[in-house]
Amino acid sequence: MDYTKEYDLGLGALAKHFKFDITYHNHYAFYTLPGTWENGWIHEVHTCDGLFVASAWLTTEKALNYTMNIKEPCLLILCIDSGEITLTQKGKASRTLTPFTHLWINPGRPVRLAIPAGMHACFTSVLIFDSCIEGFLKATGSSYPIRVKDATLWKPQHIDTPNIMLVMEQLRWGVRGNRLPPPAYLCKAIELLCLFAHNLDIEKQKRSRRDYVTWNDEKQLYLVKERIDQNPLSLPSTEELCHLAQMSQSKLRIAFKSLYGTTLYSYIRESIMKRAMQMLADDELNIKNIAHQCGYENAAKFSAAFKAIHGITPSAFRKGFGL
Questions:
Q1: What proportion of the chain, given as a percentage, has pLDDT over 70?
Q2: Interatomic CA distance for residues 243 and 33, integer angstroms
Q3: Mind giving me the DSSP string for 9-20?
Q4: Given 81, 139, 159, 240, which is the most exposed site by the fewest CB atoms within 10 A?
Q5: Distance between CA atoms of 196 and 194, rounded to whole angstroms?
Q6: d(CA 75, CA 127)
Q7: For 264-287, what is the mean pLDDT?
Q8: What is the pLDDT of residue 60?
């Protein structure tokens, strides 16, 4: 199989494959879905070699299946607001990415991206190549562990956190509204990688004396985390989570904190507030509406909880993006 050209084109390689309408303006590219598809677009920024930041909003008329075959080491960070993207790679089980943030490490083997027909998908992506990371580290004289080889140590709990969500939202609105100066995209991409490494380091410090969690327990706890991630605004009862984990309530609390470095309650609250941040992008929802959907009886309590997680109030967040 021939190599695809993501290093040169980013998601433009996908756009060319599906014959999207393509317009360029300086470092911006605008990809519009063909007229036979539902309305949709992808905006992408390419400000330096080895880095592409994109934001997409689309509904496909037919299933979108695209195989990426990239020879250069790279990382793809995907923050999904709605819809599903399935990654399939030979020798591995298919991985369906649902809302929130995910990381794909390019292993030098083809990977197929699939979006089902008729599904509305909204996501932000950062595609960064090792050459870009090395160039930054060399230019700054840094030695922080953020290269592609370091990414093999990063787990979902290091990738999908409130501090990561905030940066991804800044990139989303930067791309969509041309709100960031060109060098800021590289700074934000490097910030993401540094936060991944930092989150790993913090977890190591917290879990230096962690209780032992068996492999079987870890698999069951992942099911609990996955269930929370699927829809944090509509969660099953604690009893149902215990049944899913095949654990008592006390064991679930202890094992979850031991494995993920945070309490089950804190993880649920963080997941709700990450979803709230995504909902704030919807102009049709006022903060009172969002508070209610997040389970808060009034906007004041919701705002306090949001600020405790993200360090900014919902109204200040919206004001920062002109919403």
A1: 96
A2: 44
A3: HTTHHHHHHTT-
A4: 139
A5: 5
A6: 6
A7: 89
A8: 81
d(CA 17, CA 12): 8
Tokens of 231: 């829809």
Domains in the chain, CATH or no CATH each: 6-206 (2.60.120.10), 215-320 (1.10.10.60)
Q: What is the spatial distance between Cα 208 and Cα 114, in angstroms, rounded to a whole number?
A: 39
What Cα–Cα distance (Å) separates residue 216 from each residue in 130, 245, 246? 35, 10, 10
Distance from C-alpha of 101 to C-alpha of 68, rounded to nearest angstrom: 19
Q: What is the total residue count of the chain?
A: 323
172 closest CA partner among 40, 104, 105, 78: 78
Q: Write a three-state SS string for 102-162.
A: EEEECCCCCEEEEECCCCEEEEEEEEEEHHHHHHHHHHHCCCCCCCHHHHHHCCHHHHCCH
Residue 37 has pLDDT above 90, yes or no: no
3-class DSSP state of 293? helix
> How far from 177 is each of 45, 54, 80, 172, 321, CA to CA, in Å?
11, 12, 18, 9, 9
* Closest by CA position to 210, among listed 245, 162, 262, 164: 262
Q: CB-based contacts of 113: which residues, under 8 Å, 6+ apart?
A: 14, 64, 65, 66, 67, 68, 85, 86, 87
> Is the CB of residue 156 less than 8 Å from the CB of residue 225?
yes
C-alpha 84/C-alpha 123 separation (Å) is 10
Looking at per-residue pLDDT, the higher value among 153 and 107 belongs to: 153
Nearest C-alpha neighbor of 129 from the set 49, 249, 32: 49
- List the 51-59 sheet strands across, edge first: 21-25, 28-32, 40-48, 51-59, 120-129, 74-82, 100-105
Average pLDDT of the residues in 180-190: 95
* Residue 162, number of CB atoms within 10 A of its CB: 17
